[in-house]
Amino acid sequence: MAEKQLDMEIFESAIALAVRAPSVHNTQPWRWRLAGGGIDLHADRTRQLNVSDPTQRELLLSCGAALHHLRVALAVHGMAADVTHLPDPADPDHLAHIAVTPQGPTGADIDLAAAVLHRQSDRRRYGSRPVHSRHLRQVAVGAAGFGAVAREVPPTLRATLARTTRVAADRHAADLDYLGELSAWSGRTGANDGVPARNSAYIPPSGEIRQRKFVQPMLTDPAPAPDASEWLVLCTPADDRRAQLRAGEAASALLLTATELGLSTCLQTEPIEMPDLRAAIRAEVLFDCAYPQSLVRLGWPSPTAAPLPLAPRREPADVIDGYTAAY
What we know:
Layout: H1 8-18, E1 30-35, E2 38-43, H2 57-76, E3 79-85, E4 94-102, H3 107-118, H4 133-144, E5 149-152, H5 155-173, H6 176-185, E6 186-188, E7 195-196, E8 230-236, H7 241-261, E9 264-268, H8 275-284, E10 291-299, H9 316-319
Parallel strand pairs: 6-7
Antiparallel strand pairs: 1-2, 2-4, 3-4, 5-8, 8-10, 9-10
Helix pairs in contact: 1-2, 2-3, 2-7, 3-7, 4-7, 5-8
């Protein structure tokens, strides 16, 4: 089937959904442009977290999530995305070229696009209702379509994973460079990026598995109660840039599937930012069979939890190169 030419109005509409993707510290490290009848995705290194992400692994995960969100947005506009990952060996920041062909949207495409608008990173406690194994299988299927595995962390390995999160949190609490970077990207008010104070909850450190502590959390956490969260390790058989980019696509597919089911979710990468702790998770949780790319917490929202404030995003004009308003 012949490639379809994108007009600026559809392009801008698709990017408006793509930028709803999750990214580490909500840095939104991506640039988009129309090119050759399709779309190019480029990394924005000015938004790289140089302290916690010196290798750009999390930047690639973030851009991969945006790439999958773009696939979803194009599908609901009646276009199938043909993605070439890392198309230019001479330009490592050129992460993907997306060609499009006509393809009518399905009901599943429409549902997934709706999930883009509803998905939020929920850092609060979840409810006491257990997550059924069939739901874990459903979200894992979404990730598998992009070459990743969502490995459930069974109760017997929770203590092992918890140890890595505690060590990571303690190290970061004593790392002034990390704390400076975290302060630059969290606790904000009125910004269109970063983790706002209104979207971050204070979680006491007594939890089994620690979560990242952001600056000036203002979000009210539900009353203390049993939390039946499940933890997954999103992992890949390889660990090169392409695998990390596709892991971001897998993370997006997993999160949107969970949102469709009504589950709350949050990515957690803090222990994976430290090479020795990442190696420990690979060895002791994954038994050296895959490379951990992100942790995922998911569960049913607490019945006492208030609706989450909408997390900020940059406008399409801020992330499109050579932007010209379509209307």
